[in-house]
Specification:
The protein is α/β, with parallel strands linked by helices. The protein has five helices and five strands.
């Protein structure tokens, strides 16, 4: 049996990200683990639901809380393909997740060390251990390829409209 490492669980988060990508969502995926077992999974559904809160982490946190019957996710690890944004970082702290492992940094909204670190803010009553850069290249490539394709599609659509007029 394969040892369940951070990389092993991050690959599950990447599988979730690919589900989001299949729905034309930004490919971000998350899994929450307790005692070596996956409790919950989530992937971005913001475009599908047209709700700003349907980020991968929030959906996974919600599922884990339902499964455990508590809002306290102590002794859990959240694996996510992209560094958590301010909303997700807040939910992680308020849910008392013990550890966050993420892949790619988010230079525009990262709140686990890039722009600020809400997960290790001493003024909060809970701090979360952070491990960054796990399968970073694979996670980052998934995102950059997605946005490259999106830009290309927009460009092609623009050119098509020009030709039609």
């Amino acid at each position: 049996m394969q040892e369940k490492t951070d990389e092993w669980f991050m690959k599950l988060a990447i599988e979730e990200a690919k589900k989001a990508e299949g729905l034309a969502e930004v490919p971000i995926g998350a899994v929450i683990v307790k005692d070596g077992e996956v409790l919950a999974r989530g992937h971005n559904l913001r475009e599908t639901t047209q709700r700003s809160i349907t980020h991968a982490e929030i959906l996974a946190i919600d599922e884990a809380c339902k499964k455990l019957g508590t809002w306290r996710l102590e002794d859990t690890t959240l694996y996510v393909t992209l560094e958590p944004c301010p909303m997700c970082a807040g939910a992680i702290v308020l849910s008392r997740v013990q550890k966050v492992v993420y892949g790619a940094i988010d230079p525009k909204a990262g709140c686990a060390g890039t722009l600020m670190n809400l997960l290790d803010e001493p003024r909060f009553n809970h701090q979360t251990e952070i491990v960054s850069g796990v399968l970073e290249e694979e996670c980052g490539t998934l995102l950059s390829d997605f946005f490259r394709r999106l830009r290309q599609q927009k460009k092609e659509k623009k050119q098509q409209l020009k030709t039609e007029s």
